[in-house]
Amino acid sequence: MARFTRKFLKNQEVIPLGQISSTVDKIWVKYDLDRSGFLNRRETLKFLNDFLVTKGQPPATVAKFNHFFREIDLNSDGYVSRSEMAQFIKGYLTAPQVTDPVTELTNKIFAKYDFNRNGFLDKRECL
User: Fold this and answer.
1) Average pLDDT for 52-80
2) Confidence (pTM)
3) Does 20 have pLDDT greater than 70?
4) Which residue from 8, 54, 75, 109 has the highest number of Cβ atoms inside 10 Å of its Cβ?
């Protein structure tokens, strides 16, 4: 998803990573009005506008909604599936994973010396 969504959903609620599934379940109970198992454009608009109102933001304009829908509808089939909603929540509404300082330092050092970005430190990269 593009930077647009990060900017558009500023000050978002943080959801613990382990609660993604139950959050999607709650969304489906409230917004999947036709019980199709998917959110159509109208249902997704209702979800987005309710979400924005809880964050003190105005309802989405047509252009903003269309952009948001293109980002969340990953397979471009015109519907939002439960897995697409879970991806959205995971990417934008979950708390960042906390890493210990040693792991963080190790990752920074690794990134610095893994010149070819293949995920391994080759012999020449270690010299």
Assistant:
1) 91
2) 0.62
3) yes
4) 8
- Domain regions of the chain by residue span: 3-92, 98-127
User: CB neighbours (10 Å) of residue 21?
Assistant: 11
pLDDT at 22: 85
DSSP the chain: --HHHHHHTTTPPPB-GGGHHHHHHHHHHHH-TT-SSSB-HHHHHHHHHHHHHHTT-PPPPHHHHHHHHHHH-TT-SSSB-HHHHHHHHHHHTBPPPP--HHHHHHHHHHHHH-TT-SSS--HHHH-
Q: What is the CATH number of domain 3-92?
A: 1.10.238.10
Tell me which DSSP letter residue 13 carries. P
pLDDT tens by residue, 71-94: 899 999 999 999 999 888 777 665
